[in-house]
Specification:
This protein has five helices and four strands. The protein is of the alpha+beta class. It has a two-stranded parallel ribbon with strand order 1-2. The two termini are about 30 Å apart.
Length: about 110
């Protein structure tokens, strides 16, 4: 929801938002509808992407209801889809503030 509140600022800066969650597409659809989310949400129910990116929170094991939770954070890709920046937190209950994400993404893309 926080990202949605600044989505237009991201668009104005030429930055696209894409979110990956471990939620099912059905849960994502309900969330999108309830909060008017306008950016893509990708479903990673089995945590394949999160594991491949090295972001899986290892505090939870397969079978745990929280299994698949990634460390919260962002990855910034340039136009060539090269990673130019990333920020991750170890505590899943903490989040990077949306305005800070925009400032950081803008900075690393400009310094390119």
């Amino acid at each position: 929801m926080q990202l949605q509140s600044v989505a237009q600022q991201f668009a104005s800066a030429g930055i696209n938002i894409v979110v990956i969650t471990y939620d099912s597409p059905e849960l994502q659809t309900a969330f999108i509808d309830k909060f008017g989310i306008t950016f893509p949400l990708l479903s990673d129910v089995d945590a394949t992407s999160v594991k491949n990116l090295g972001l899986l929170n290892t505090d939870y094991q397969p079978g745990d209801s929280n299994y698949g939770i990634p460390y919260p954070g962002i990855i910034v890709l340039d136009r060539d889809q090269k990673v130019v920046g990333k920020v991750f937190l170890e505590n899943y209950a903490e989040r990077v503030e949306a305005e800070g994400v925009l400032a950081y993404a803008s900075q690393v893309l400009e310094s390119g």
